[in-house]
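quick one
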Amino acid sequence: MLSKIIEQEKIDHCAKWFDKAKRVVIVSHLSPDGDALGSSLGMLHVLHEMHKEVTVIVPNEYASFLSWMPAIKEVVLYNKYPDFSQQLIDAADVICCFDFNDLKRIGDLGKLVEASSARKLLVDHHLNPTDFCEIMISHPEISSTSELVFRLICRMGFYDLLSKEAAECIYTGMMTDMGSFTYNSNREDIYFIIGRLLKKGIDKDDIYRRVFNNYSENRIRLMGFMLYKKLKVYSDVHAALMTFSQEEQEQFNFIKGDAEGFVNLPLSVSGIRFSAFFREDKEQGMIKISLRSVGSFPCNQVAGTYFNGGGHLNASGGEFTGTLEEAVAQFEKALEAYTELLVAEE
Ligand code: 5GP
Ligand code: MN
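structure w/ manganese (II) ion:
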């Protein structure tokens, strides 16, 4: 049996909404990842089974290694189809906000969601959600939104409506947000849920291959370049940094997703506990910051204090306005401020 995590009152409230709703829109965050799409598409499949009109809208493109996900072709990209997105949101009875804690995390799409009079449901696992939905299912102690969506589906009594396709989506979200079950993955419930997903017929080994062994030649060459030429190790403070300029992106015909997961690579070096990856984004006029840590080092605090961002204890991100050199200087300032914590024995 699964432990009950979501309050019964919220489950009943959601069930009532979904029962009454004709049209449902599910939205998720910028640069949607496996968990954003996994939780959204998992719910989409179940709502389809309930004969609802349901659409997933995301602010912008997802990485190509997720393009196999069942029903992903139905996902509407707001940056490509703003008018259609507006129509869908205007017509929605219920809007599900999955895997983000603040309307800022969905960019301009946030204004549409905010202005809508639809009922709004949040399901998320990021810290400190802002209060923008009537029902807030927020559980930062749970490692993926996909797990929360699975729990919600089951508790509403819809496990039987969960198809193999829905199970594949949920599994993808869980697997990617726990680094293939290498972090935040010690709760026993996780494996109970995976058992249930296997019962639905998923091939977890194949899903792993589709997500992680499906990269382009460009990406692996870029990875080689980054590790050989760009990795800067601050061994005194157990930290590492890689930067990726616009010029280098052109040189390697960079497309979105090619640098996915690079920020984790330095953590495989013995002693490194804090890693950063900075990518210049001229189009958006900023540097995108990704931070990762192991153990108790709070990389989300660094993201919040130095890079106008946030996230989880061990995986966070933010933005920096300025040049790459200035961003590096800012990072080094953070390293100085956090030296004591970084050198402390775990
Ligand atoms: P990634 O490095 O994969 O882009 O992001 C890792 C995590 O950091 C995300 O799941 C999210 O929780 C958080 N994050 C990334 N970028 C931002 C940002 O700009 N603002 C905030 N508040 N959190 C972010
Ligand atoms: Mn997530």
